[in-house]
Amino acid sequence: MSVSPEMAFFVDANRCIGCQSCVQACAECDTHKGHSMIHLETIQREDSPQTVPVVCMHCDSPTCAEVCPADAIKRTSDGVVQSAKKPRCIACNNCVLSCPFGVPKMETKFELMMKCDMCYDRTSEGKKPMCATVCPSQALTFGPKDEIIKQRQSSTPVNEFKFGNQHIKTKVFMMVPKNTKEQYIDVTASMNDSSISQNMEDHLADVSLDFLGE
Amino acid sequence: MENAYFKKFGPHTSYQLDDQERSDRGLEPDKLVKTHCCFCGQQCGMQLKVRENKIIGIEPWEEFPFNRGMLCPKGVKRYLQNSHPDRLLHAYAKDPSSPEGFRTMDYDEAVKKVAQEINKIQAQHGYDSFAVLTGASLTTEKTYLMGKFARLCLKTANIDYNGRLCMVSAGAACKKAFGIDRSANAWDDITKSDVIWIAGSNVAECSPITTEYIWAAREKGAKIIVVDPRITPIARTCDLYLPVKPGRDIVLFHGVLNIMIQNNWIDQKFINEHTVGFEDLKEHVSQWTLEKTAKETGIDEKSIMKAAELWGQASKSFMLHARGIEHHSHGVENCLGAINLVLASGRIGKEGCGYAMITGQANGQGGREHGQKCDQLPGNRDIENPEHRAYIAKVWGVDEKDIPRKGVDAYEIFRKVDRGEIKGLLSICFNPLVSLPDNNFIRKMLEKLDFYVAIDFFMSETAQYADIVLPGSLQEEDEGTVTQVEGRVIKINKVVDSPGDARADWKIIQDIAREVGRNHGLKFEGPKEIFEELRVASKGGISDYYGITWEKIEKQMGVFWPCPTEDHPGTPRLFEPGSWNPIAKGAGPFYFADGKARFHAAKYSPPKEETDKEYPIILTTGRVVSQFLSGNQTRRIGPLNDQCPEPFVEIHPKLAQHFGIQDGDMVTVESRRGKADFKAMVVKTIRPDTVFIPYHWEGKKSANQLTNSAQDPISKIPEYKACAVKIYKSAREVVQ
User: Cβ distance B229 to B245 under 8 Å?
Assistant: First the structure.
């Protein structure tokens, strides 16, 4: 049983709504129940509600496996980088420190590195991973590669990354917007200025500052 | 006493069922049951994993067409409400001498006591002195039963429901404009649209699945317009964001329509053939020049113009709105303004063209159709209409005179308590102490009642004030139908049995009716029998379910009403050219005798409570994705509560700076009705004249201590989305 070569996993941060459904669903997996392998990053909340889900990118030459002194991390022939094998993992943390995407987590309670294995129990049987199944905005999508690329004309799928001198090719694709669109990062950019000053600042000008508690 | 109460009734947070010490703790389920989420109006299909009468997890249901396996975090974790330590397993009686404040009571005795109190109060003060409050998260069968129970057993006019805080502005506007109260399209039409206008809807957090429909349209090149005082996740990547000042939506709609008229971006042929009232509206909106519209709405002229250009020149368009424009003292007018834009474009009743309000609660649609509203009988019939009364009297086997007349709305019920006109209350599926505005008033009214019985599965903040609490059922413990956001009637399946003395809500209601001594027509054997009667009761009404059967729902994975006959497939898209309806009888696609839709020259009035020197800032309220409504369920589900355990106040850096507030500071927000402390979230994603607080919490954390109970004169929806507050740094610092 292996993951079909026609199927691909896409991460589209442009679609992410930060709902954490992926995080919650990941923790429902029978192989690691209660522990989510997904990181949901909030970029800079003051400026924007932008969030990005981070799953294992499943590198062609996985750094985590290359640095593992116990050879506990295996990449199967279908390109999925498996989570550490319990009998081999020595909880040394090398993989956690070396992963360019910051994916593996050390679960000290189990003395085990745990990371996303693309729901191998599901994907190797022809199902979608849990996170990509539930994701309400389909920021995480799993499906026939050609079909999805055709559906998502506004994005370019990228699976080659550079970190310093390291060049990485991954099984998972990151969707990058083709044309940079207008992004709203401050509500005041589209406001009618005179209205603000009249309605609010006039009021505030006379507000007593006694209650500022200084 | 409070500690003992908490120990017994919570809210405790539940996590996994078994120990935390293993990494591979998957239990094999005995079975998977296909059903739907217990939370919002999207009603996502899902499968629950069951083992030994306990729900141990979820499995996506990818075949269900609406959500195709997608779920928000609430759906993923909903199973943790089952087997919950706070679950009410017995009837309880208020007992101040008990450390918990309640003592357990035999169920039958409790029901007898309830009946005695009802009879006592009604004998002394009249039938209308006993009121009923219900909810739109109940199945349609239960809502039908509640309406019938109130009218025939209690003989009270005063039954109303928590959809009063939710869907009534949209419903009233739809009836006025289209003659029918339902979203006009199935969601597929969103994906085929060219321009999507989202007014006052935090889609990503309040109806997450709808996001994918919008993104799918965007991938094909559709332009997305979002109107909201906050940059919500859906607004972040839209094509045009309009930061409307809370309470000014109608002005924006009028201003945009005026530009459309001036540029001839309207469908005059459609207007002539299918509508009434355009000339009056045209005259009315002519006052809203671009400059005046910009000034009143607080949106820059360029953006308003761009909105008119996009909407006006679209070939296919879809209007979506939610509570953001509805929760106002002129909520109906706001919705009519949105509908005007749709009708003037002529883009409705066709593929990729339409209109929808996004329902909030699970059964926000079905729960407002079959008689639990104070002015309504089943089939969305009017309780004051003699023909409608006669028809329902016949179905119920009673004299028309025995059906009470129109009662008062949910908030007015509490004002009647204040005036001494209502003495007793039965509530189910409603937590008004958290969810109603100005809730310090609600607390006083709950204390004032002579007798209050609450039916609930957890001890809600409101139930805590009850004299008797009866243990009701969770969604997964009963079966029945709900009508989701698109108007699709779907089936909720029973997954597990109720624990302890808890039982199906319809049984409890019928037990009370029997003990009251008036249970004519309240002897149903189960929800299916109720549904069969509901089909007949709705027959010929506008919300016609006659052709829907449970079997058909299962076979088709949902049936869109109206569905008047058994061989009718249902109606996913309303108002198609040439379509037939029982009111127009072929005269036209809309539900009026002439078949034409109505324009309304909706009047603008600002929020009831405007800002002033003492209260210079607008407060607006709303939801977060991981909590649901009053939080009675989600605050008890560990992983959901952890995602957002406390309310907060969003403040723009400009405003924060003015008051010396930094991100994370405790801030006191004070209105004329109350004050409370919230942690500041300083963000550029909210208008500087507005602050936002989510409302899911109780007591001192409740945003509804501050909100205004001013209501829309037609829909009676309260004005949650705009009131005046002042803010200042709290004297108290955060204790972490």
Answer: yes
